[in-house]
Amino acid sequence: MTGVRRLGPSFENTRSAVLDMIRSSGTVSRIELAEMSGLTATSITRIIKSLIDVGLVVETGYGDSTGGKRPSLLELNLQARYAVGLSLDDARLTYVVTDLGGNVVGQLVTPGIRQALPSEVVARIGEELERVFHELDIPVAAVVGVGVAGAGLDIRGGAERLSLTADEWESFAVQEALEAATGLPTVRDNDAACAALGQFWVGRLAASNDFATLYMSNGFGLGLLTDGRLSRGVSANVGEIGHMVLEIDGPRCWCGSRGCLEMLAAPRAIVAQAMADEGLRAELSLAGGDAHLRHDFQAIARAAARGEGRSLALIERSARYVAVAMLSVVNLLDLDRLYLAGPGFADAGAVYVRHIRDAVRALARTRAVHGVSVELSDPGIDAAAVGAASLALQYVLTPHARSSRPAAVALEA
Fold this sequence. Notes:
- By secondary structure, this protein is an alpha/beta fold.
- It contains 13 helices and 13 strands.
- Pfam families: HTH_24, ROK.
């Protein structure tokens, strides 16, 4: 692990950087923390005492002696606080409650937003969260906040574009409404960014490990972690890979361009191709239409995973486009690891992994310098919800890693 970046005189930032080292290490001694951070033993002792005093860190035993007194070992006090992650999706709402380590201690899945009005969905969320806390016997006072993952652009007014079909959400301030409904501080981000942050937090990755997470639901998004922070861009909209142009004369996209990845390879495109095949449509009992998009795509993906020829050909075609897009990402950003997450990869994710691995192995500009790890994310289909909880945890535990973003609320530990 590399040393901590110089953070200036702020004790809070220094403390949060040390806490992040404890998170990524799992179990670590004060001596090791001093070596990692470049801080003095006295400074480390003072920081650790403050973390123990507020219940965030506990001593768990002793390490091996190197000739003197055995060093005491430290780790996060996982049950000290909890966070909620909520993934807003057309098909389903996914709630997870995690401990401080990002470990899921409870989960609830309910019907998605569909065509429901935002006010109706928010009222339901408040009721369902009460149910979750009651069933898990977790006092609300122990919950640091709610992280929300949703698809689409951040347009600075607090609104989220969640899908092509849920127009009412375009001008609805999700964060503010949820805070009012739940009484809990709320932070939000897009599902791809949350999935990347969840991989970072739950996977105990060090801040020095840069990587990207490709998220597929109804469309595509890319979450990018650099130095332990989510990359944002000028308007907080980094990661719109679904609108990377792959065919300049390709089909027109709803964004106004042509040949976007989303129009060539996303679930909607795959289902449309399957619907044009009368035999396949009947064989898989495809219904067509936005209301059945997730179900239809799952049927195709599952048939592909079983090796059924026509379905596999459709998924392979999609995977080739995705592989070309991710090859460009690797070449542009010089990454050595990629993760795939989201419901779109739940059934036939292995096909996409294979095509991306083959592309970067054969064609990445830096292939002679380093390899590129390509893996399905854990927890995969629930990555956005787990990552949303990690978003809330990051705001509490590691404020030095907060990324500047409009309408984000800082939570108190």
